[in-house]
Amino acid sequence: MQVGTWPERRAALEKFQGALQEKFPEMDYNVFVFGSFVRDDFQDGKSDIDMIVYCEDMLKRMEIAEFCSEYFKRRQLEADVLEYYYMEDAYTYAVGILNSIQMTEYYPKKLRNELYVITRRYARYLEGQRRKLKYMRWDYTMWKRRKEENNHGGDAGRTMKNQALKLLESYDRYIKCDDERMKDDLLEAMSSRINHIAQAFCDIMAFIEISERNSAYEESWGYYARQYLKREIPKTEESKQAADFLRRRNDIVHDYFNIDRLNRDVLKAVANFGQGFLEMTEDLKEYCYEKFPEFQMEQNISKMKKTARR
Fold it and tell me: Comparing C-alpha atoms, which of 50, 41, 44 is closest to residue 13?
């Protein structure tokens, strides 16, 4: 199945719609296709197709879901098929359905009312998440101000290492925790640790860039992650993955709508290559200590960055 471009994906959906309605001619159901498959960020060979099956007849809903999954499996495209169940905090259903392409015209009032309730709760949830994020940013800003006057290279290295250790500790507590509210707090803590690691990482890479090339200071996580991957700094596979994760996570603090997805990305990253953040810290420290003796105590990174901006 050719799905690399939107016209190809649209044609694939039209064929799927025809097969679906032929298999289930009684239109008391709907299939909502959402996610990257109907957006321009779809990556051929990497992205899948996401869909939600709605039908009040449970057995028929299960049959439709199985048909959808098998249809795309035969065409070598992975399908993530969700069955709709009404729950007031099932935010994925609301976001998915309200940003989807429908395969039938069935859209009953009962479903609309349920989505209204979910959406209202989701709006309140997002507001709570915004407040949490704001407080996390305030906390980091105050911490950064306290460090600003004496921000030496050694401080950035120690901060990065401490946050990497605390990140792994938070993950260990998360997988052992049964309380959903506590797990949510631990996930937020992991996200905050990643932000601290990223800022310390940027400071260290800025020090290296300015020391070696006298280049202007950049404000981008992605820029420094790319420079780290290009340089002859010792790396493990996990530390490469950690750096690439920071590159893709650039400007996370400005992305409010996708906080849930971004937090899930953090959880997946720590599970798969969490040790890489610690290894990246150790490798950077050794690289700097060997090449720049002043890194450990004498050189003030904050002053270097301010000078490089001018």
Answer: 50
Q: Are 163 and 276 in contact (CB under 8 A)?
A: no
199 vs 79: CA distance, rounded Å: 37
Number of Cβ within 10 Å of residue 196's Cβ equals 21
Close Cβ partners of 170 (under 8 Å, ≥ 6 residues apart): 186, 189, 190, 193
- pTM (whole model) above 0.85: no
DSSP result, the chain? ---SSHHHHHHHHHHHHHHHHHH--S-SEEEEEEGGGGSTT--TTT--EEEEEEESSHHHHHHHHHHHHHHHHHTT--EEEEE----TT-HHHHHHHHT-EESSS---HHHHHHHHHHHHHHHHHHHHHHHHHHHHHHHHHHHHHHHHTT-BHHHHHHHHHHHHHHHHHHHHHHHH---HHHHHHHHHHHHHHHHHHHHHHHHHHHHHHHHHH-PPPP--HHHHHHHHHHS-----HHHHHHHHHHHHTTTGGG--TTHHHHHHHHHHHHHHHTHHHHHHHHHHHHHHHHH-GGGTTT-BHHHHHHHHH-
pLDDT in tens, 123-157: 777 776 666 665 555 555 555 555 554 444 457 77
Residue 263: which of 210, 205, 188 has the closest Cα? 188
Q: How far is CA 100 from CA 30, 117, 309, in A?
A: 11, 18, 45
Distance in angstroms (rounded) separating the CA atoms of residues 94 and 161: 40
Q: Which of 89-103, 208-222, 283-297 holds the top average pLDDT? A: 89-103
Which of 65, 69, 87 lies closest to 78, judged by CA? Answer: 69
CB neighbours of 196 closer than 8 A, spacing ≥ 6? 140, 159, 160, 163
Tens digits of residue pLDDT in 215-225: 655 667 778 88
